[in-house]
Amino acid sequence: MRLPSPTLKPVWATLLATGGLLVPLSGSAQSLQALYESARGFDATYQSARAQYDASVFSAEQTRAGLLPSVGLAAGATRTRQDSSINSNDRSFSNQNASINASQPLYRPANVAARAQGERRVEAAVATLQAAEQDLLVRLSQAYFDVLASQDSLAFVRAQKAAVSEQLASAKRNFEVGTTTITDSREAQASFDLVVAQEIAAENNLRIKRLVLDQLVGKTGTEPNPLITPVRLPALQPSNVETWVQQAQDTHPSIVQSRSALEVARLEVERAQAGHKPTVDLNASYGLNRNPGGSTTSGVSSRTNTTSVGVNLNWPLFAGFATQNRVRETLSLVQKAESDLQGAQRNVAQATRTAYFNVLSGMGQVQALEAAELSSQSALDANRLGYQVGVRINIDVLNSQSQLFQTKRDLARARYDVLLGGLRLRQANGTLKPEDLQGINLLLAR
User: Fold this and answer.
1) Interval 133-146: pLDDT, tens
2) Residue 175 CB partners (closer than 8 Å, separation 6+)
């Protein structure tokens, strides 16, 4: 949405009063949570993670086959012609056969361990999908707030352009009547030319940020809801960083994945040790063999039914030390998985602490910038009054205006960073969920 270029003081004053936010057309804006639902069904990265999760679940389910019975059916038919040069007894006969075979594992420790590994891999797949969901939440929020920040920047630049244009016109009038020098007019013109360049850059930046958001949610012309003004940012809860770290040790996807990998490695040791153990299977079969025209030994039709049930024991005695070395290999892999788990826990703890203190720092910056905004506004009012009575020059007013708009832009960006930082903190400790967007939606205009 392109706003009309402000040229009069009332427009500048209005933008300052509203905090410099661009308010979208009525009914066209969308909440962060609504856009998340769109992104969830469109984003290629998340859809890929979802498909990988499904594949991992089906792969893990295949391990059940080692504990369940297997049944096979076989059938065949042949036609034979027999020619004899001795008694000229030439004849043809056929053979028809069918059999069904079934086997049920009774004792296969390797298969039991493989099934347990499959269950652990499902847990890891769930954690992987959860990490992809959290990544989508953060990427969408980043794109959402980037658009809002770009809108704010463009609004502030245009407000500054209107203010500089007004100051330029005033300087030209004062020069014409001889109350100021040409220096004021040239300084105002230089400031005006600079802010025009900044407006062009801000327009392009907003265009790019909107493209990023549109691509993420699969829609065009997306308009985020702006923050309400005045806005009160929520306090950080819980207020103890160690509480956040402790939560991360229990729920973070990377820790869950590493913990599942450790369990899989330990179960792999059991599978390797099963190479020394026997296997016991229950086998049963039923077969039918029919010779309607006789056979090579008899000219009489025959039919044979065979049924068998039995238990098979297989006990490996020696495999060239392959089993022993396989056990040693898996024990080394257990040590690796333990180290990976410790590394994941440390990395998550460090990332959680960093994200926590970033949010605290951001909140402090917001408070400082809010105070700076009031101070900059007071300084601008004083310089404008001083310029009117002749104790200040034009450049003083222009510098005060630039300082005020810069402070407002930094304040708006700092607020978005705090909200995004809260989501990143929850991602860092593994507790980020789509429901966390509801709190942000309450801070957005509707």
Assistant:
1) 999 999 999 999 99
2) 181, 182, 184, 185
